[in-house]
Amino acid sequence: MMRILFFAQLKDVTGRAELEWPEAAAMSPAQLWDRLEQLWPAISVHRPATRLARNGEYVGGDTLLEPGDEVALIPPVSGG
Question: At 68, phi and psi to the nearest 5?
């Protein structure tokens, strides 16, 4: 099981702050996004600007996300 955390606009789109993902196999960030877009099509507009962090570390597109990981989807943040 993978724990997925949603922040800011992504939390609004999904209606939740986190999700326990029952996936039993490793997947790429692109595969995760594809599956999330199936559940919440409106999340797709945030895909280009959102960073993924696995277990507290930002990751690139070639990183495998594994069961047991905590994956955070972090959209751009503006400060003031």
Answer: 95, -15
Per-residue model confidence as pLDDT tens for the chain (80 residues): 999 999 999 999 999 999 998 877 899 999 999 999 999 999 999 999 999 999 999 999 899 999 999 999 999 876 55
CA angle 31, 17, 80 (to 5 degrees): 105
- Rounded to two decimals, the pTM is 0.90
Q: How many domains does the chain have?
A: 1
Question: 23 vs 12, 66, 68, CA distance in Å?
Answer: 23, 9, 10
Residue 79 three-state SS: coil
- In 3D space, the residue among 26, 3, 33 whose CA is nearest the CA of residue 16 turns out to be 3
Is 79 within a domain?
no
Domain assignment present for 9: yes
Q: Note whether residue 69 is domain-resident.
A: yes
Q: Which domain holds residue 6?
A: 2-74
